[in-house]
From TrEMBL:
Its cofactor is adenosylcob(III)alamin. This is Vitamin B12-dependent ribonucleotide reductase. Keywords: Cobalamin, Cobalt, Disulfide bond, DNA synthesis, Nucleotide-binding, Oxidoreductase. The gene is nrdJ. The lineage of its organism: Bacteria, Bacillati, Actinomycetota, Actinomycetes, Streptosporangiales. NCBIfam families: NrdJ_Z, PRK06556.1.
């Protein structure tokens, strides 16, 4: 009789043997027999009050919610507002984490019992208790759709990732629009490959010319922009893929870059080009991520040089040849301009495909981590790695293995009861049972153990953990196949599936370990892969896919993770929400642990942490050795991780993942097109499946095409034999009149108080700004005086205010944080606040909208789906009223008296320092709460309320 005991198979059975005993024999991991996991936790009641960051009003309020005392305020707030079901204020409203976990886990346990997953009621109870313990202790989390839907009257949708398909018929294209709309309406995203659609260079059966896939993208883009995602104002999450040999590939590559040029031109012409603006609808293709599916054949042509053939969709014949390097250059140039397209490496993806006999992998979900069959879906769960770091800085390998078994069992059960948005997706997912286990907090784990993210040691740990996770997952999948059978499509794909398992195991054998931690993890991973191959050969596998690395946006916040997915830490200093409201700035709590691990004494640790709190980086920190700087490198800031450091970390994990990795490789603003080409080429050589890049400020900087045109003009002039002397007129200064209207604003940024007086010409805009933030005679006061004079003279010499706003908004330094201004609730520095306030007071709505600066009232109107431009007079009056008290109007014909300002020496205008805040600076504002979002994999997440722009 076959029996599954703690994940091992004993006895006889299998195909041709005796009938196996049905059910897993579960063993406890964290729980105690006879004690409910809830009884081992100290619970506390809290009040969750979410303030609208736009106008200070309360937009959510629930009192007396119950959470474990160790849960942060932010995690409790997000779960209460996002995942508790029932109308607020009614008895049906959930008010405790216990109720939420009971609702979800109850369905999993009940379904497992009904479908023979457990050997006995006692085993089902152990499964139930272990899941509940792990969830309330933030050891792992299911993806958001599970928390939204499971155990409610809604459809039991558990998947966050979807892949669709479209054929070369009008009926299929219209079905694509409909299916995509249904998925968007439910708050999820999807991806699709359009390469089956004939190009605009091919003929129709009627004799006419085909429209081509790019034209049909317009309809899908308009649909996504209208439906958006879940009825919210943020854009829908979608991915569009086109094969590199499609005849319309050049048009596809340049599509979004060309539209970015249109946005700039229309904005400069005075049109409302904000995301919610009335004129933005004229801009197309903005609701999707675009990726080119490149083949090994194409990449070899790029390496060697030569022609590459573009093929007709119906016949496969080459209808045009293009220069391979030139086409690759166009991809990199477009990505330099607007971050699209990304690349997906087709041959690598399909070489690791477990089900090629069913069909090729042609597309991915919006964040590029789920790659499998068309018309399929994947549900996700992520492990909090920092929970397995023991006090002695060793990794808890045995419990990590046991938890992985538990999660895979639960995820497979979920497919049994799950509902799906379309019947085709439901059929494929039930037949292939794709799972997506992953992890979060890798960056924090590496820092806490004294490993640099961009180091051989850091990559060895990441590779070993990923290998252990996937090997254990497939081993458990083989055990499940022995009990409830392999997936329906396994028999026809048995040989390729087993081949991919051997590839994973071979990659594990090639993994190079460096120290005790990764050696211990790798030793267990080797054992798991050996057992996986043996059981898979005997029983097959329950799941066609097991693992990937998702962005873990909302659920990462739910688990109080310092870092998301495979990402490094974003910054060394963060803001922590406090009970009762407000927030405080804290140094990342993994830093003291890392310093102790590196051998620093307690007094040294305190001095270094104090330095980091003040400066935000470790450069020149007292007593910190320079060889340890790299341990504290982050995604941005003083010591940002190099772009290839991100690529190498992805390459360390990729051989041990069924799917891919949701991650964007950040490049500095100074990066060139050559740099992006190098990243794309190395991504292919290192065996990645998908890769996206983002050059800092690429969506607000000068486009490459314009720079190129300017260069060409200069070169043309250089070739002209005649020397021409051009008189350049000097700018003239327009001085302020002796009496001029002014506006004084008192402000607070991160606890630091200050005053700003802005004087304007009686007829035309601001011309003078003075700032005061410290006592007269202090260094800070002197610096602010000098800065004020420089800005004032620049304004009087004709430098447009919006130019200063573009340069100083998003500049990051301390003090930063909460302000007392309802229009600008968070500021990254005093300069960030000042120029946002000046923009609100003196720039017209159209210019502010292009810069992403809105008043509280305007954001409220956007959230309601209304046009903010229609109420500009009201909004501007309100903004002025918030900045200064309303005073009596001066007598008719007499100008208003200016606020007295101390005499200051005039200084020459000097170049201002520009902020390089990168992808965070370009991140959208959360339309739920108004907070600037931060990167999470290929998506964005709001730390204020947990909203995401993609997978969660």
């Amino acid at each position: 009789m076959t029996e599954i005991v703690n994940g091992t198979v004993s006895g006889t059975g299998g195909r041709g043997g005796k009938r196996p005993r049905k059910g897993l024999k579960m063993k406890r991991i964290f729980t105690t027999p006879g004690v409910h996991p809830y009884d081992e936790v100290r619970w506390e009641r809290r009040d969750v009050v979410m303030t609208n960051w736009r106008d200070g009003s309360v937009n959510f309020e629930q009192h007396g919610v119950e959470f474990p005392e160790f849960w942060s305020v932010n995690a409790a707030n997000i779960v209460t507002t996002k995942y508790f079901r029932g109308a607020v204020g009614t008895p049906q409203r959930e008010w405790s984490l216990k109720q939420l976990v009971d609702r979800v886990v109850g369905v999993y346990t009940k379904t497992g019992v009904e479908n023979g997953y457990f050997a006995s009621p006692e085993d089902a109870e152990i499964f139930d208790h272990e899941l509940k313990h792990s969830l309330i202790h933030q050891i792992f989390s299911f993806n958001s759709p599970v928390w939204f839907n499971v155990g409610t009257l809604s459809p039991q949708q558990v998947s966050a990732c979807f892949i669709l398909a479209v054929d070369d018929t009008m009926e299929a294209i219209l079905d694509w629009y409909k299916e995509e709309g249904v998925i968007f309406k439910g708050g999820s995203g999807s991806g699709i490959n359009l390469s089956r659609i004939r190009s605009s260079k091919e003929l129709l059966s009627s004799g006419g010319t085909a429209s081509g896939p790019v034209s049909f993208m317009r309809g899908a883009d308009a649909s996504a922009g209208t439906i958006k995602s879940g009825g919210a104002t943020r854009r829908a999450a979608k991915m569009v893929v086109l094969d590199v040999d499609h005849p319309d590939i050049e048009e596809f590559i340049e599509t979004k870059a060309r539209e970015e040029d249109k946005i700039r031109a229309l904005r400069d012409a005075g049109f409302d080009m904000d995301l919610g603006g009335k004129d933005i609808v004229s801009v197309q293709y903005q609701n999707a991520n675009n990726s080119v599916r490149v083949s090994d054949e194409f990449m070899h042509v790029v390496e060697a040089g030569g022609k590459f053939g573009l093929r007709a969709r119906l016949t496969g014949e080459v209808i045009e040849e293009v220069d391979g390097r030139g086409l690759f250059r166009k991809m990199a140039q477009a990505a330099w301009e607007c971050a699209d397209p990304g690349l997906q490496y087709d041959d690598t993806i399909n070489d690791w495909h477990t089900c090629p006999e069913t069909g090729r992998i042609t597309a991915s979900n919006p964040c590029s981590e789920y790659l499998h069959l068309d018309n399929s879906s994947c549900n996700l769960a992520s492990i909090n790695l920092l929970k397995f770091l023991r006090d002695d800085d060793t990794f808890d390998v045995p419990n990590f293995v046991k938890l992985t078994e538990l999660i895979i069992t639960a995820m497979d059960i979920s497919i049994t009861f799950a509902d799906f948005p379309t019947e085709k997706i439901g059929e494929t997912t039930r037949a292939y049972r794709q799972l997506g286990i992953g992890y979060a907090n890798l960056g924090a784990l590496l820092m806490a153990t004294g490993h640099a993210y961009d180091s051989d040691g850091g990559r060895a740990i990441a590779g070993a953990i990923t290998s252990l996770m996937t090997g254990t997952s497939y081993r458990r999948s083989a055990e499940l196949a022995a009990i409830v059978g392999p997936y329906d499509g396994y028999e026809r794909n048995a040989e390729p599936h087993k081949r991919v398992m051997r590839k994973h195991a071979a990659a594990n054998d090639d993994l190079r370990t460096l120290d005790a931690m990764d050696k211990a993890i790798h030793a267990e991973a080797t054992q798991q892969w050996q057992e996986c191959l043996k059981l898979g050969e005997r029983h097959g596998y329950r799941n066609a896919q097991a693992s990937l690395l998702a962005p873990t946006g909302t659920i990462g916040l739910m688990m109080d993770c310092d870092t998301t997915g495979i990402e490094p830490d974003l910054a060394l200093v963060k803001f922590k929400k406090l009970v009762g409201g407000g927030s405080m700035q804290i140094v990342n709590q993994t830093i003291p642990r890392a310093l102790r691990r590196l051998g620093y004494q307690e007094e040294q640790v305190e001095a270094i942490v104090e330095f980091i709190a003040e400066h935000g980086h470790v450069v020149d920190a007292p007593g910190l050795r320079t060889e340890h700087y790299e341990v504290f490198d982050c995604a941005m800031g003083e010591r940002a991780i190099a772009p290839m450091g991100h690529v190498r970390m992805m390459a360390a994990a990729q051989p041990f993942l069924s799917g891919a990795i949701s991650k964007t490789v950040n490049l500095p603003e100074s990066a060139t097109v050559d740099d992006i080409e190098q990243v794309y080429m190395q991504g292919w050589k290192l065996g990645l499946k998908a890769l996206a890049v983002y050059r800092d400020n690429c969506k607000v900087g000068q486009p490459l095409s314009a720079a190129k045109k300017a260069t060409e003009e200069v070169e043309a002039e250089a070739e002209t034999p005649a020397v021409q002397v051009i008189e350049v007129p000097r700018p003239t200064r327009r001085r302020m009149p002796n009496q001029r209207p002014s506006l004084t604003t008192r402000f607070t940024v991160g606890g630091a108080k200050g005053y700003m007086t802005a004087s304007s010409y009686p007829d035309d805009g601001v011309g003078e700004v003075f700032l005061k933030m410290s006592k007269q005679g202090s260094t800070l006061a002197g610096v602010m005086d000098a800065f004020s004079v420089a800005i004032s003279i620049g304004l009087q010499y004709g430098v447009p205010l919006d130019t200063y706003v573009q340069k100083f908004v998003n500049m990051r330094f301390e003090p930063a944080g909460l302000t007392d201004d309802p229009d600008v609730r968070m500021a990254q520095s005093v300069m960030d606040y000042i120029f946002r306030r000046l923009a609100l007071d003196y720039l017209p709505y159209e210019e502010r909208a292009a810069l992403g600066i809105f008043s509280a009232a305007e954001r409220t109107l956007q959230a309601r789906g209304e046009d903010p431009a229609a109420l500009q007079e009201v909004v501007d009056t309100a903004a002025l009223a918030q900045s200064a008290p309303i005073e009596d109007k001066p007598a008719e014909g007499k100008p208003a008296a200016a606020s007295p300002a101390p005499a200051r020496a005039e200084l020459e205008l000097i170049p201002s320092l520009e902020s390089h805040a990168g992808r965070t600076a370009d991140a959208p504002l959360c339309m739920t709460c108004g907070t600037k979002m931060r990167p999470a994999g290929s998506c964005y997440v709001c730390e204020g309320c947990g909203s995401t722009s993609g997978c969660s």
